[in-house]
Amino acid sequence: MSSLCLSRLQQERKNWRKDHPFGFSAKPVKDEKGGLNLQVWQARIPGKKGTQWEGGVYPVVLEFPQEYPTRPPKCKFDQGFYHPNVYPSGTVCLSLLNESQDWRPAITVRQIVLGIQALLDEPNIHSPAQTTAYNHYKSHPDAYKRMVAEQVKKYADY
Amino acid sequence: MSSTQRGLRTLLGENAVKRIRTSKVLLVGAGGIGCELIKELVVAGFGEIHLVDLDTIDLSNLNRQFLFSQQHIKKPKALVARDVAKEFNPNVNIVAYQDNIMDAKFSVKWFESFDLVFNALDNAQARQHVNKMCVATNTPLFDCGTAGFLGQCQVIIPGKTECYDCREHPAPKSFAVCTIRSTPSLPIHSIVWAKSFLFSLLFGPPAAESQFDETETDDNREELEKLRKEQNELGDLRENLTSPDFMNKLVHKIFMEDIKRLLSMDAMWENRRAPVPLEVPEYSSKDGQTLASQDQRVWTTAESLSVLADSVERLVSRLEAEKEISFDKDDEDTLDFVAAASNLRSSIFGLGLKSKFAVKEIAGNIIPAIATTNAIVSGLGVIEAMKYLAGLDADLRSVNIWRSADRVFTSEKPAAPNPECLVSGVARTTMTAPADFTINQLIEDILKLKLGYSEVSILSDRLLADPDYDDNLEKTLQELSLHDKFVTVIDDDDERVNLEIYITEGPVNIEQVEIPLRPNQSEADSELLDPADSIPPISSKRTAQDAGLPGTTSSAPGQTFVDLTEQDDAIDLT
């Protein structure tokens, strides 16, 4: 693994350990050799207070490439997560995570999870990633509301 | 003595020639640059050369790797290069290894035995590894690289000059999943889609089982069903690969249905050119093979469909024996598939069409290699190595080759190490400890007690411990297989630079080490330090001046480093 990638992730881990936004968690996952794999983090992102996403805590996996921080991590909700900008596989489509758009090497894990939290209630209809949530959001707001509420319930136990 | 060696004696003196003759050098890589380098090392009379390369010889190597010829195809590069180069000078001792240089058997101890090292590598990962081993063992490294007409030889004298990692190297560009899946805007986006998404979904390793949560209610059943369908349709296609109707289903799904689904998300196309679902003309797979050989011209839609149908037949017939197939630019079946599928997608999105030849270059990330550049760069590498052996440290230069009419070469004095560098800018030591030595003992007995740390993180290729992660404290060095490896100790208070410890088995003992403060810390704090303070002064670090290497200034264009990386954009696009 590139030393730059590893050391930056260690720094991110340290910064997160010492201070992180309330209600969030983010931690490298265990690897089979005994230790934490800094290239894959499990995060939990709470729905923002005062939005219809409030009450749920949504698991997201952050996968950092060898070329991080030059390249952004790939962020994934559970497969089948209901949101206009989430692919059926769970992959998040967000300009902050796009190397050709807003990604900059200085962006921190903290900014990433806050960015994903903001995306929950502010979908970008110009970059839809699944038809189901997109069509509801655009044309059937009642159905959209109902589906989001179902999903809040599903993730409320975490 | 050969005329080359007589010339060297006149130029460098008897002592230098003797040092060249008695030196033991390592050459990593026996490809385009490696073949040139070993020829020159042998002719110049270097006494003992160890050559490492994992690869075997391919037909496409023969236009520039002149030690190899037709009869050597499929044989190991390192061994053939040894045998052929030895004929130039039978007095030279060449030891060849068909191995990966990153293998654990090439230990710190092994690297230590060399007087100097040449890199003739094509990928950043191996370069970084050799660089780190050379810095850790204080072994000079001459890193040669080319990309077409561009070339570079970087001189790395550990502790005195900057190392490979002291500067950032540009990473190959990646594309976001949305660009590839939904909104391609360049032909390369279609090519990446065909290669990394469509091809690997159909012929690559099987995808993991669907992880859809089954906790559905009456309310959301229909919607979840739709989502599941969107996710699984390609998997369904894969199951039907052998059905006689497969090609029709594939074309219908990929180039019509999926495009209509994208179009249904109308907001996406407000400011973008909307795709047009394919209108499928008459085509037949029996023309495919003939058309596929016409690789210099752009195919029509019907022709692309023919090639696609034919390549699918060829790939499907291979699946029984091979289970899964991965894309390889030199595997015609896979290349035909990607060339045809990408052009069909490009025509749907109104992007430029490409010939199969052009697709091969893009999909295979081919950077044309030029034999002349390789030869020049190798010559530069050997010249710098000779200067080093002749003791001419002040004359050492890192040299770049440019495609420029007025100045082909620019050279710069190697800069001093970057204090922020994670390879050059760290403290290093070695320690011995028995197999049952625990991480907790390492932290408490060595790092806190002997080296005066308060809180630390410990890292190898993974995080082993930090103040909030204590699972491994009672685990031993043996359990975590940490012997003959580097572990990195990071000061939790960010005051000291990182410490790299190389651990070998033995009774507990650590070599004395001074751990300098971080550069930003030392500037702020240096005036406050009592000279008798136990914290070591940063001046203990060697600088370019100490090494007799003048200044750290460099001429402007010499800053760019060429990175020849046959990088694969192996991104997971699901």
From TrEMBL, chain A:
Species in which this protein is naturally found: Wickerhamiella sorbophila
Family named by the database record: Belongs to the ubiquitin-conjugating enzyme family.
Keyword ATP-binding (UniProt): yes
Span of domain UBC core: 4-157
Major localisation: nucleus
InterPro entries, alphabetized: Ub_conjugating_enzyme, UBC, UBQ-conjugating_AS, UBQ-conjugating_enzyme/RWD
Keyword set, alphabetical order: ATP-binding, Nucleotide-binding, Nucleus, Transferase, Ubl conjugation pathway
Active site: C93
Pfam families (UniProt xref): UQ_con (PF00179)
GO BP: protein sumoylation
Protein's UniProt name: SUMO-conjugating enzyme UBC9
The organism's taxonomic lineage, starting at the top: Eukaryota, Fungi, Dikarya, Ascomycota, Saccharomycotina
GO cellular component, one term: nucleus
Source organism, top-level taxon: Eukaryota
GO molecular function (one): SUMO transferase activity
UniProt-annotated location(s): Nucleus
SUPFAM superfamilies the record matches: UBC-like
Pathway where this protein functions: Protein modification; protein sumoylation
Automatic annotation (TrEMBL), chain B:
UniProt keyword terms in alphabetical order: ATP-binding, Metal-binding, Nucleotide-binding, Ubl conjugation pathway, Zinc
All copies of domain Ubiquitin/SUMO-activating enzyme ubiquitin-like, residue ranges: 436-505
Residue ranges, annotated region (Disordered): 521-574
Xref: InterPro entries: ThiF/MoeB/HesA, ThiF_NAD_FAD-bd, UAE_UbL_dom, Ub-E1_IAD_1, Ub_act_enz_dom_a_sf, Uba2, UBA_E1_SCCH, Ubiquitin-activating_enz
Similarity comment: Belongs to the ubiquitin-activating E1 family.
Protein name: Ubiquitin-activating enzyme E1-like
Pathway: Protein modification; protein sumoylation
PROSITE patterns linked: PROKAR_LIPOPROTEIN (PS51257)
Domain THIF-type NAD/FAD binding fold: residue ranges: 10-422
Domain Ubiquitin-activating enzyme SCCH: 279-360
Sites where the protein binds ATP: 29-34, 53, 61-64, 77, 122-127
Residues annotated for Zn(2+) binding in this entry: C163, C166, C421
One GO molecular-function entry: SUMO activating enzyme activity
GO biological process: one example: protein sumoylation
A Pfam family recorded for this sequence: UAE_UbL
Subunit: Heterodimer.
List of catalytic residues: C178 (glycyl thioester intermediate)
Compositionally skewed regions (Acidic residues) per UniProt: 565-574
GO cellular component, one term: SUMO activating enzyme complex
Gene3D superfamilies for this protein: Ubiquitin activating enzymes (Uba3). Chain: B, domain 2, Ubiquitin-activating enzyme E1, inactive adenylation domain, subdomain 1, Ubiquitin-like 2 activating enzyme e1b. Chain: B, domain 3
